[in-house]
């Protein structure tokens, strides 16, 4: 019964179809059923529950921590330029509580009015060193029209929510897998401002991108989900990030991405290889959950990109099944398809905004 699980140390997650913004009664009922618990959720481009992927549904998980404490933070975000400050505001809320030993932050953000790179940077700047940051950007299918985050059981646009988990007995595992293949020449990012790309090799970025898409260009920005950019900052040891388009501006011949495009960096177009996408999802699951006992209890959250879902089509559940193969027997698994994924790329690395990846976060206690 809900009353038995309800507590200040209970995390209730709800990932829902965008349509629930206009029909929020089930979400409001969830909030009423768990008045003491920490409730977080967002709109999606597909809801993950166990090994299944659904639409027009709500995926819910209730996880009561035995040894850890929870704290919820929320802030409004008016535009992408406010992203770093929004991250700082969330960090300030999470570090100004009586709870000790902040170990992890799970963040859910509006997917259209944010620069995910700035949001993560703002959070990182305000949190203690070593705190794990994972999560994702809310989705709206492939429409890119309107996204929302839960606030007290009510869907709200232009919001960012973060849940802090405190306690020395918390264990966090994470994994991040891509599986895309590069094609075409490398091109220099010659003009960019934050997450807006204006020029590649001195040429208008949108015009050049349309050349690659050909007939598919008529379907922008949705068509861009099939052909993301691999971006590498200057320097031989810099890690490659994947970026996908959120919007295009015909007058400026620019493209807006979910995260920053480093001016002076190198970009290259990518395309799908379905077996590699599925295998990469499994690798992310193994990275996140590989240290747990086979019968260990855990909360496992998968956040994958809407672009992967569009490419995989009827094979979408195969990547989720690939993750589930690594889960302990007593793990609860849910997640969603997003407009951006937040996770470290490698174990012990810094958290970053990714696109076109499957990210897996595993929370457990010892």
Could you explain the architecture of this structure?
The protein is of the alpha+beta class. The chain folds into 2 domains: 267 residues, no CATH class; 91 residues, no CATH class. It is 21% helix and 39% strand. The protein is built from 8 helices and 26 strands. β7, α4 and β8 form a beta-alpha-beta unit. The two termini are 25 Å apart.
What would you say about this model in short?
The chain has 366 residues and is α+β, with helices and mostly antiparallel strands. It has helices spanning 2-5, 25-33, 83-94, 116-126, 205-213, 274-289, 306-312, 316-324; strands at residues 10-16, 38-43, 47-49, 52-54, 58-64, 69-76, 102-109, 132-137, 149-151, 154-156, 159-166, 170-177, 181-182, 187-193, 196-200, 203-204, 229-232, 240-243, 245-249, 254-257, 266-271, 297-305, 330-338, 340-344, 351-354, 358-365.
Features:
globular, alpha+beta, 8 helices, six-stranded mixed beta sheet, 366 residues, nine-stranded antiparallel beta sheet, 39% strand, 26 strands
The main β sheet shows up as: 9 strands, antiparallel
What is the total domain count? 2
State the low-pLDDT regions, or none.
none
Total helical segments: 8
């Amino acid at each position: 019964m809900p009353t038995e699980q309800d507590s200040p140390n209970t995390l209730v997650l709800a990932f829902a179809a965008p349509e629930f913004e206009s029909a929020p009664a089930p979400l409001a009922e969830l909030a009423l059923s768990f008045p003491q618990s920490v409730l977080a959720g967002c709109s999606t481009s597909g809801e993950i529950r166990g090994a299944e992927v659904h639409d027009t549904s709500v995926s819910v998980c209730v996880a009561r921590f035995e040894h850890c404490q929870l704290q919820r933070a929320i802030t409004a975000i008016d535009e992408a330029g406010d992203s770093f400050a929004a991250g700082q505001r969330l960090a300030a809320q999470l570090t100004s509580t009586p709870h000790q030993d902040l170990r992890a932050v799970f963040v859910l953000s509006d997917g259209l009015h944010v620069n995910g790179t700035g949001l993560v940077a703002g959070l990182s700047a305000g949190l203690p060193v070593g705190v794990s940051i994972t999560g994702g950007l809310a989705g709206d299918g492939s429409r890119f029209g309107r996204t929302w985050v839960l606030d007290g059981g009510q869907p709200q646009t232009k919001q960012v929510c973060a849940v802090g988990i405190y306690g020395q007995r918390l264990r966090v595992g994470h994994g991040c897998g891509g599986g895309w293949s590069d094609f075409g020449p490398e091109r220099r990012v010659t003009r960019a401002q934050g997450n807006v790309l204006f020029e590649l090799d001195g040429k208008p970025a949108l015009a050049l991108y349309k050349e690659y898409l050909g007939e598919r260009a008529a379907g922008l920005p949705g068509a861009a989900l099939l052909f993301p950019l691999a971006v590498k900052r200057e320097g031989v040891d810099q890690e490659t990030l994947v970026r996908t388009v959120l919007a295009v501006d015909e007058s400026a011949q620019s493209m807006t991405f979910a995260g920053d495009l480093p001016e002076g960096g190198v970009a290259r177009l990518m395309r799908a290889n379905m077996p590699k996408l599925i295998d990469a999802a499994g690798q992310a699951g193994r990275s996140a959950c590989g240290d747990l006992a086979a019968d260990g209890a855990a909360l496992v959250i998968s956040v994958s990109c809407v672009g992967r879902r569009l490419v995989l089509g009827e094979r979408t559940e195969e990547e989720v099944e690939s993750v589930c193969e690594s889960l302990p027997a007593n793990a609860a698994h849910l997640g969603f398809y997003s407009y951006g994924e937040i996770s470290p790329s490698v174990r012990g690395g810094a958290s970053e905004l990714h696109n076109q990846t499957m990210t897996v976060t595993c929370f457990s206690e010892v």
